[in-house]
Design brief:
By secondary structure, the protein is of the alpha/beta class. The protein is built from eleven helices and nine strands. The chain has a nine-stranded mixed β-sheet, sandwiched between helices. Helix 6 crosses helix 7. The chain is elongated and about 110 Å long. The chain starts with a helix and ends with a helix.
Length: 329
Amino acid sequence: MTDTALTGEQPRLVEPAVLDDVPGWFWDHDRHLFEWFLGRQEKAGVTGDLLEMGAYLGRSAIVIGEHLQDGETFTVCDLFDSDAPDDENAAEMDMSYRKTLTRSAFESNYLSFHERLPEIIQAPTSTLAGGRVPAGSFRFIHIDASHLYEHVVGDLQVARVALEPHGVVVLDDYRSAHTPGVAAATWEAVFNHGLKPIVLTECKFYGTWGDPDQAQLDLLHGVDLAEGCQLSVETVNERRVLRITGSSEGIEPFRVSRHHDRLTAEAARREAVEARREAERAQEQAAADLAGRRARAAERRRPTNVAKRVAGDLLPPVVTSAIRRARRG
């Protein structure tokens, strides 16, 4: 447990130099697929708003925001540091990220990469139901809020109404051992409510209520896909489902933040100062060692010590021993 957790103080905001400096769980394959789906829509001339339900400290939101087009709106809905609507949700937050999740940290991270914040709704994702977001207006929705079954069911219902006909929905933690509610809600939507899987990663489920076939064919043919990505085909309830594994080879790093150059220069200066101090400490130690050797050599050259050594070398051992006993008294 950190000192911050013990004292209840808010953690100090740390400026990120690169996307990986933003705390969170958003791995290379998923970042690549986010950009693949969003970029594919843009190339096809598809427009529509973007939505993230549950943002933590902004790592995935930063990537989504990179693909915001003119005339579109990016909405982020998260409790951040507000109180949870029920005891189960509060316990979930306390166990996972209550000490680190703040709106100010999210905003600071996001503005490190973008000029303007998305539209932020600091509230439970259930507030998006009942027409809060326009029906059929979103092209991409990422669901990563509560892991409780009832909440995920509600988030999926919001997404189904909000997405345009061929929009993409992404669900996080659809298969983790500690989030069975997400798995139950996800596959229930597949089997009972028309959600069609497109591709699965280790952490996220990508699907649509539209037609998944063309996206799957493009993935299978490697269109704009990083060379390290490996695809396999499964069949679930007579429907094709892709799985993506492999390495991160060929996945381009996300662009650096506006702090990158300054932070890199500051780090280089700190390293130079530390290297200089280390060199000075090494020089001081070398000088001390040399002084010690010189002092010992001078001591050996003193006349009395020289005479002792000569006597020790020239006199017979018996005489030398007698002299030493006499000196001892």
